[in-house]
Amino acid sequence: xxxTAKAHTNIALIKYWGKRNEELILPTNSSLSITxxxxxxxxSVAFDEDLSEDIFVLNNEVITGEAYRRVSRFLHLIRETxxxxxxxxxxxxVNEVPTAAGxxxxxxxxxxxxxxxxxxLGLDLTHEDLSxxxxxxxxxxxxSIYGGFVEWNMGEREDGTDSQAIQIQTENHWDVRVxxxxxxxxxxxxxxxxGMKRTVETSAFYSGWLDSIPNDLKEIKVGIATKDFExxxxxxxxxxxxxHATTLGAAPPFTYWHDSTMRVMQTVxxxxxxxxPAYFTIDAGPNVKVLYLPENEEQVEKILKDIPDVQNVxxxxxxxxxxxx
Length: 325
Ligand code: DP6
Fold this sequence. Notes:
By secondary structure, the chain is of the alpha+beta class. The protein has eight helices and 14 strands.
């Protein structure tokens, strides 16, 4: 009744931004990501008949409060799936997702928890089954089951049985790199969960966002298949800008950008003017991720590190899917 799994985080090139069902975490649009080698979570789950409640230890610290409840609710879903309702678990998680890189750890965290938890209870699941369960912990986590280039098909059914991720290319298909640029910012955080909810409910621009998704997905998939970096980068950057535009149309309006976020965005655009192909994408926070090709790594790293307010630049390759240890 014990298993250990490792999962990597991912960065969306076509963003998931909005839910049609909050309970089941069903999205309003399909999304596409790359899994990253540099950032991962390793999680052990041990079910034990002597426990009267779940225990969650993260980076050697016992976790309580909302983060604990989210993990425990998710374990309950695994217990129900396995028909073992009254069996509690000790969860030990170690995050190699440096907060310094400005990544949310929920994607790798829930993917590793789902993989270890289901394996510990003897469930023998396909990757698609596992992705569907993982989705209910955190939406973006369902893409971290796979390595390489991954698409989360939103599905149509009300019960979510067709909403899961699939791999469209392995991590060996194409060596694209990502620089995670962490900024020095003390902004009050609006979580992705709260931000997308407000946007879906109130943004004047939300329908425009949804209308643009099918074409973005079609274009980026052509770009990935043909290894057309300019195309992939341009579609990803434009998609990110559209997602962030929806927050400006919300009530009350908000933005995840800091002035230094815009400085990095401008620097990336200037790199292109100088002939270095680089493109940015931004999630629900001020930090920026920059896509580039291996031959430009040294230059890109140096230029990014020289921007005022940049605290840290962490480089990553495309990474693998879930593995069991
Ligand atoms: C902007 O997966 O963190 O990073 O499903 O509510 O847990 P929940 O949200 P989460 O949202 C991620 C939003 C995003 C875009 C993306 O990763 O696709």
